[in-house]
C-alpha cells in the first residue's frame, strides 16, 4: 500500500505505518465493514500527512530539505557584525537548520526602494556545516549542523548603523526527502521524484557530493546514493551512483530522514488511530491496576513523539 503520487510526500507511507510494530489496528479506519479498500488507503494517507504536519509543528520548522529565502536586518539580533572595521566575518542566524548549502547572498541599504548588491561566491560560508555520514551530504541522525552563516565584513558591517542593512539569503536546509512519481525498474540508475531539494548538494566541510537515502519499499527496501539531480528543487530526476537492486512503484518514499524522526511520525499516526476510540480498551493489570484507555494512550504517544523530536527543534 503506497501513497498517491503528489507533491511533498509525507514522512511515512501507509505501508510503513502498517508494517511498524505498533500494536494498533488501522484496518477499521474509517469504521464500517463495507468500506472499500480505496477509502481506507486514502484515509491512512491523510493520517500520514497529518502526522507529518505534527512533526514539523513539534520542531517549529519542516525537517524535509527546503530551499528558503529570508531577509534579515542588521546589525541586530540575528546579524552580528564586527565593530571598528574589524576583519572577522559577520554572523547571520537563519530561520531554519541544518544549513546544507548557501545559494546566494545579497545586501542593500535598508531604504526603499532597495538597491541590491550580490555578494560574490567565496565571501560567505556555512558556519557549522553538517559532517554527513558514509560519504553522504545528508545530516546524520544526531541532529548535527548549524543555523548560521558567515559573510565577509566587507559586505555586512556597521557602515549604516544598527539595522541599516537588509541581507537577503537563499539557502538549502534539512534532510532530503521525496516520493517516487513514476515506477522504477530493477537496474535503473535514476529515480523520478516529487522533490529534488538537497539531494545533489556538495558538503562544504567534507566535500561529499550528493545525499544517501533509503527507499522504503517493504521487502524491496534498499539504500541509494544520489550523484546528480535535474532540478535544485521541486519535481525532477535523481541520478544514482549504482543501479537499483529492485523495482519500485510510484508513491514509494526515498528519504534521508533519521529513523527516529520516522518513528515519531508513526507514533503520531498511532495517536490519531487511538483517538477515535476504535481500539480503546481497559485491561486489568496485576496488582489491581488498569491500563490507559485509547484517549490516554494517544496522548502518551504524542508526548513520546515530541520527546523524540526535541533534538531537531528550531531554537530561535
Structural class: alpha+beta
State the low-pLDDT regions, or none. 1-6, 278-286
Q: Tally the helices: what do you get?
A: 4
The beta-strand count equals 16
Radius of gyration: 23 Å
Query: What integer is the average pLDDT?
Result: 90
Number of domains: 2
What does the largest sheet look like? 6 strands, antiparallel
Strand order of the largest sheet: 9-14-11-12-13-10
Helix content: 10-25%
Please tell me about this protein's structure.
It is a single chain. Mean pLDDT is about 90; it is low at about 1-5 and about 280-285. The protein has about 325 residues and is α+β, with helices and mostly antiparallel strands. The protein folds into 2 domains: about 15-60 and about 175-310, no CATH class; about 65-175, no CATH class. It is built from 4 helices and 16 strands. The two termini are about 40 Å apart. The radius of gyration is 23 Å and the shape is globular. Strands 9-14-11-12-13-10 form a 6-stranded antiparallel β-sheet, with no helix packed on it. A 4-stranded antiparallel β-sheet has the order 1-8-4-5, with no helix packed on it. The chain has a 4-stranded antiparallel β-sheet with strand order 2-3-7-6, with no helix packed on it. Helix 2 (about 35-60) packs across helix 3 (about 260-275) and helix 3 (about 260-275) packs antiparallel against helix 4 (about 295-310).
Amino acid at each position: 500500500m503506497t501513497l498517491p503520487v503528489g507533491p511533498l510526500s509525507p514522512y511515512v507511507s501507509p505501508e510503513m505505518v502498517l508494517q511498524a510494530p505498533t500494536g494498533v489496528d488501522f484496518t477499521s479506519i474509517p469504521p464500517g465493514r463495507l468500506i472499500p479498500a480505496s477509502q481506507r488507503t486514502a484515509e491512512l494517507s491523510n493520517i500520514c500527512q497529518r502526522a507529518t504536519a505534527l512533526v514539523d509543528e513539534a520542531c517549529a520548522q519542516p525537517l524535509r530539505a527546503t530551499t528558503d529565502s529570508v531577509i534579515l536586518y542588521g546589525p541586530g539580533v540575528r546579524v552580528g557584525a564586527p565593530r571598528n572595521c574589524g576583519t572577522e566575518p559577520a554572523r547571520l542566524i537563519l530561520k531554519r537548520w541544518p544549513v546544507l548549502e548557501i545559494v546566494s547572498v545579497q545586501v542593500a541599504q535598508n531604504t526603499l526602494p532597495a538597491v541590491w548588491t550580490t555578494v560574490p561566491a567565496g565571501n560567505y560560508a556555512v558556519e557549522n556545516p553538517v559532517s554527513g555520514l558514509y560519504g553522504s551530504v545528508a545530516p546524520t541522525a544526531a541532529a548535527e549542523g548549524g543555523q548560521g552563516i558567515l559573510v565577509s565584513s566587507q559586505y555586512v558591517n556597521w557602515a549604516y548603523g544598527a539595522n541599516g542593512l537588509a541581507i537577503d539569503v537563499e539557502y538549502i536546509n534539512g534532510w532530503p526527502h521525496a516520493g517516487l512519481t513514476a515506477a522504477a525498474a530493477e537496474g535503473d540508475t535514476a529515480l523520478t521524484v516529487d522533490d529534488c531539494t538537497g539531494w545533489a548538494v556538495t558538503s562544504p566541510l567534507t566535500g561529499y557530493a550528493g545525499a544517501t537515502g533509503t527507499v522504503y519499499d517493504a521487502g524491496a527496501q534498499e539504500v541509494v546514493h544520489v550523484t546528480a539531480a535535474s532540478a535544485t528543487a521541486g519535481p525532477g530526476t535523481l541520478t544514482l551512483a549504482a543501479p537499483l537492486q529492485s523495482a519500485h512503484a510510484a508513491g514509494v518514499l526515498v528519504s534521508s530522514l533519521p529513523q527516529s524522526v520516522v518513528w515519531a511520525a508513526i507514533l503520531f499516526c498511532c495517536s490519531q488511530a487511538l483517538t477515535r476510540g476504535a481500539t480503546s480498551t481497559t485491561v486489568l493489570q496485576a496488582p489491581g491496576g488498569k491500563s490507559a484507555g485509547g484517549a490516554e494512550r494517544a496522548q502518551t504517544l504524542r508526548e513520546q513523539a515530541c520527546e523524540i523530536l526535541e533534538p531537531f527543534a528550531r531554537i530561535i
